[in-house]
Amino acid sequence: MIVYKFGGASVKDAAGIKNLARIVAASGDDIVVIVSALGKTTNALENVVKAHCSGDANRDQQLIDIRSYHEEIANSLFSTNDLPGGLLSSSFESLIDNLRNTGTDNYDQTYDQVVSMGEIWSTMIVNQWLIISGINSVWVDTRKVIITDNRYRDANINWDETGRKLKREVENSRGKILVMQGFIGGTPDGMTTTLGREGSDFSAAVVANIIDANRVEIWKDVPGVMNADPAWMPNVSKLDRISYKEAVELSFSGAKVIHPKTIKPLHNKNIPLIVRSFFDPVSAGTIISSNEQVEQVVPLYVKKENQILLSLVPKDFSFVIGDNLGNLFQQFYRHGIKTNLVQASAVSIAVCVDNEPVRIERLKGELESEYKVLYNDGAELLTLRYYDRESIENITSGREILLEQKTRRSIRYVVKS
Predict the structure, then answer these.
(1) H or E element, residue 193
(2) Closest Cα partner for 215 from 131, 123, 286, 279?
(3) Which of 5, 12, 152, 317 could form a disulfide with 204 if both were Cys (CB 3.0 to 4.6 A apart)?
(4) In the prediction, which pLDDT does 417 show?
(5) Taking the CB of residue 20, how many other CB atoms lie within 10 A of it?
(6) What's the confidence (pLDDT) of residue 205?
(7) Using 50, 70 and 90 to split pLDDT, how confident is the model at 324?
(8) Does domain 2-289 have CATH number 3.40.980.10?
(9) Residue 322 — very low, low, confident or very high, per pLDDT cuts 50/70/90?
(10) Radius of gyration over alpha carbons of the chain, in Å?
């Protein structure tokens, strides 16, 4: 079997969904199709959650706009702007009713129940179009087969239970193409969870690992993995092949083409990952595999935006080592904050993290009893692999450098944006 994953950009409109169907129809293989939310729906639903939790009266209008967007796409595909049985309408009405009865004190739990709906709606529409196109497909509720703990917004997979349920689903649907949601899962007691922002790639890797897929193909709006984001750096070039290790380095540093958790489940079973263009389905794309012999001949640039640099100084000037360091990072984990860069001295530590204000404020409140907490917001994390003097100049010229970290193959800067 092969796992196809389509991101939001590939299904942002009716034309994109029709293109997805053509790609699936041309494959000639047994396929599991993982689909993200349509277009920028995830961003829009995140704004709904923020409005709900802050008491913003604009929440309902935001939901109306999201509903209109989905109905417009459905109307372009089907004879009515709804799905059979009124599935789209009833789903939106159910979400609105649930929000009216949901408190505002548990942001992360509310986030997962609301934002996850983007994938539910997209896969309903995609599956119905596949059926109309003559493709024998079946809609699968991923919340019932990808089983997780209740760590909302960054759930951990229960691999044993997920394996049993997913294999049973594949067996029961033999001969059909499975259409599943990316990014989401569910707890044993039926609560929806999400696997981390942009986690649909990880969903594809989990499914591939469990069903022993031949390969995973991620369909994007770029020709493959590039040596830099084309929106940031001019004259980028495609990498034909990279190793799992290189992919982990790039994704951890912030490269948007692959989610950081994606590689491990594939590496564990030596399943290759191919990043391909949905604009040009016949092109080869980039192959990510166990091949460690591929030598990079160009520098690789990665920019991670919306960062904050925290500087922590113990109030008693105790060394930030041993138990102190372990306890400190346990607090980061407990608040759901991932560290993107760490640099320690004898009596201080600098940590670069994603700037998530709600979580950062909670963490600061907990740390301030023992640490003096300083910070620089409005920062970016720049990573350069296989650097030379010219490439360093390309990313640092005219920038205010807050922190530099250098190894034999990589150099990283935290700079003011």
Answers:
(1) strand 192-194
(2) 286
(3) 5
(4) 87
(5) 22
(6) 98
(7) confident
(8) no
(9) low
(10) 22
- Name the token pair of 111: 């986030």
Instruction: Say how far apart CA 37 and CA 58 lie, in whole Å.
Output: 22
pLDDT band at 321 (very low <50, low <70, confident <90, very high): low
Query: What does the alpha-carbon distance between residue 33 and residue 3 come to, in Å, rounded to a whole number?
Result: 6
Strands 177-181 and 192-194: unpaired
* 33 contacts 4 by C-beta, under 8 angstroms: yes
SS3 content of the chain, % helix, strand, coil (to 5): 40, 25, 35
- Going by their DSSP bridges, the two strands 401-406 and 410-416 should be labelled as antiparallel
Helices 117-132 and 87-100: angle between axes, nearest 10 degrees? 170
> What residues have CB less than 8 Å from 196, skipping those under 6 apart?
153, 154, 202, 259, 261
Paired sense of beta strands 286-289 and 241-243, if any? parallel
Strand order of the β-sheet with 215-220 is 137-139, 177-181, 31-35, 2-6, 215-220, 273-277, 286-289, 241-243
Q: Are 148 and 187 in contact (CB under 8 A)?
A: yes
One DSSP character per residue, 253-290 reads: HT-TTS-TTSHHHHHHTT--EEEEESSSTTS--EEEES
Q: 216-220, 229-233, 251-255 — which one is most confidently predicted on average?
A: 216-220
Query: Angle at CA 207, nearest 5°, toward 130 and 156?
Result: 125
Distance CA 183, CA 24 (A): 20
pLDDT of 319 reads 66
For residue 316, what pLDDT is reported? 82
Specify whether the CB–CB gap between 388 and 297 falls below 8 A. Answer: no
Residue with tokens 């003097």: 389
Task: Report whether 41 contacts 8 (CB < 8 A).
Answer: yes
CA dist 126 and 140 (Å) reads 12
Q: How confident is the model at residue 320 (pLDDT cuts 50, 70, 90)?
A: low
- The residues, any chain, with a CB within 8 Å of residue 347's CB and separated by 6 or more, are 313, 314, 317, 318, 319, 320
Report domain extents, the chain: 2-289, 300-416
Q: What's the gap between Cα 82 and its chain centre?
A: 28
pTM: 0.90
Instruction: Answer whether CATH 3.30.2130.10 is correct for domain 300-416.
Output: yes
> Cβ distance 140 to 180 under 8 Å?
yes
**Chain position carrying tokens 């709900």:** 52
CA distance 53 to 152: 16
* Contact (Cβ atoms closer than 8 angstroms) between residue 4 and residue 126: no
